[in-house]
Amino acid sequence: MADQQKESLITGVDIGGSHITACQVAVNEGKCREGSMARRHLDSSADADTIVALWASVIQESLQNSKQQAGQIGIAMPGPFDYEKGISYMADLNKYDRLYGLNVKEMLADKLGVPSTDIRMINDATAFLLGEQQQLTTAKSGMILGVTLGTGLGSAWSINGQLIEGDLYKFPFRDGVAEDYVSARWLTQQYRQRTGREVAGVKEISDQAASEEAIACELFEEFGRSLAEILYMRFEGRGPQYVILGGNISLACSHFITAFQDSLRPKMEVPAHSVSVLGESAALIGAACLWKQ
Q: CA-CA distance, 235 to 253, in Å (whole number)?
């Protein structure tokens, strides 16, 4: 027991639209405990009781993997969501519609047999940034922006250590919002329209760009320019100083980062950047670090 307390193990949970992952996090080290990971796919259109029961099952599996008792839990999940109270406000997003208006924190606490005060919740993109910040080897001054590029566009930023939940996904842009132009959905739709070929995901387009296929290369360059324009407009040319890229599309960073930088350069100082070092573990570690003393 003394060793467990010394390790300060906290259950970190990452809930997405199609999966849930849990692990035990040594928050003082910013690392997931080896062998504690549990992950399952889920149907986010299922009824509330089925969804929350699966969440509880995965958390319990992670605890069992590391021979831990249920204790403090940090959960990263998408919004709209009241993270303090634990109430979901997701609607018409093709995920978790049947959780709308429910206090899922209390529902989950009941299934786990823990007080709801032992559960803390955070936006998934904010958790990503918090997790990645634990890995920075040198302190960064000014604004640090975390951007998750995947099915959608997630964001959060930190100004001198203060975390702020981002809003890039809904920022007005061209004929819609930013997420319409900087997401896997945009890349796959545009690739299909311009080539007439279906692709399963961004990796296929990235592979084509690596083979110097003209359309794939053009798409990623447009993607980079759009991201630059969004950041310039949202922050009115006054930041950030450092950008951390995450999400599956960040793995294709080499195909769009030059266009991103070239587009920004005439307008504002180009921020330094890095690609996530933690990958899918970032949100798990960030969520657990809600309990870091």
A: 22
CATH number for 164:
3.30.420.40
**How far is it, in rounded angstroms, from Cα 17 to Cα 99?**
13
Range of the domain at 286: 2-128+281-291
Taking the C-alpha atoms of residue 4 and residue 156, their distance in angstroms, rounded to an integer, is 32
pLDDT digits (tens, 9 = 90+) for 193-229: 999 999 999 999 999 999 999 999 999 999 999 999 9
- How many CB atoms within 10 Å of residue 203? 14
85 within domain boundaries: yes
pLDDT tens digits, one per residue of 132-175: 998 876 667 789 999 999 888 999 999 988 899 999 999 999 99
Give the number of domains in the chain. 2
**pLDDT score, position 1:** 38
- Residue range 96-123: mean pLDDT, rounded: 97
Domain membership of residue 134 (yes or no) is: no
Continuous H helices in the chain: 2-7, 48-65, 104-112, 124-133, 184-195, 202-210, 214-235, 257-264, 281-288
Of 249, 275, 272, whose CA–CA distance to 261 is shortest?
A: 272
- ∠ CA 159-161-164 to the nearest 5 degrees? 55
- The reply to whether 149 and 199 lie within a common domain is yes
Instruction: Note whether 251 and 149 are same-domain residues.
Output: yes
